Amino acid sequence: MCVVLSSPVGRIEISGCGTGVHEIQLQGNVLPSSGTMESLVSCEVCEAPEEMTAPLKQCVAWLQAYFCEPWMIEKLTMPPFHHPLLEQASFTREVLWTLLRDVKFGEAVSYKQLADLAGNSKAARAVGGAMRSNPVPIIIPCHRVICSSGQTGNYTGGSHLKEWLLSHERLQKEKLAY
């Protein structure tokens, strides 16, 4: 089962079943310039099955909140995931769950810091591999992992998308601080 959202970062395809979300794919990302970020905060369903499973509904609600009402994210139920990478014990799974649990909206962490948090301080390169294989980007926020130098580093959707997501979170966090 699949749902497609039209978001500020382009089309987002979510696949899943009654057990959980399988994958989130960022497709054809046409990003607004940073000057228009404020005005483009809609996130609408553009393709969906007649009856959506509960995990897909939760995922759609979470992504809509992420883009339009980020202060609501903490109040929403995280959609369950149904992907082997997130179910089988591995360093990758540990890194992804650590990232989800410990690095909050508007924060960033280096690959090395995340390796430390996940229990293996020498595994910064393996953390990069874990980020590349993340099946549910944005929800498990691999865009928040940056280089120790402060540069954004690589991102499956492209570095421009990673920069946009980080900037979106920074702006929203600043708004909430007032």
Summarize this structure as a short list of keywords or feature phrases.
EC 2.1.1.63, 6 strands, 37% helix, alpha+beta, 178 residues, DNA damage
Structural write-up:
- The chain has 178 residues and is an alpha+beta fold.
- The protein contains six helices and six strands, in the order ββββαααβααβα.
- The protein has a four-stranded antiparallel β-sheet with strand order 3-2-1-4, covered by helices on one side.
- A hairpin with a 2-residue loop joins strand 1 and strand 2.
- Helix 3 crosses helix 5 and helix 4 packs across helix 5.
- The mean pLDDT is 91.
Uncertain spans? none
Helical proportion, percent range: 25-40%
Distance between the termini: 41 Å
Largest sheet: 4 strands, antiparallel
Question: Strand tally, please?
Answer: 6
Strand order, biggest sheet? Answer: 3-2-1-4
For this structure, the quaternary state is: single chain
Q: From the helix content, strand content and strand pairing, which structural class follows?
A: alpha+beta
Please trace the helix and strand order, writing H or E for each element: EEEEHHHEHHEH
Strand content: 15-25%
Query: What is the CA-atom radius of gyration, in angstroms?
Result: 16 Å
Overall pLDDT confidence: 91
* Number of helical segments with 4 or more residues: 6
How would you describe the shape? globular
InterPro entries: MethylDNA_cys_MeTrfase_AS, MethylDNA_cys_MeTrfase_DNA-bd, MethylDNA_cys_MeTrfase_DNAb, MethylG_MeTrfase_N, MGMT_N_sf, WH-like_DNA-bd_sf
Protein name: Methylated-DNA--protein-cysteine methyltransferase
Catalytic activity: a 4-O-methyl-thymidine in DNA + L-cysteinyl-[protein] = a thymidine in DNA + S-methyl-L-cysteinyl-[protein]; a 6-O-methyl-2'-deoxyguanosine in DNA + L-cysteinyl-[protein] = S-methyl-L-cysteinyl-[protein] + a 2'-deoxyguanosine in DNA
Enzyme class: transferase
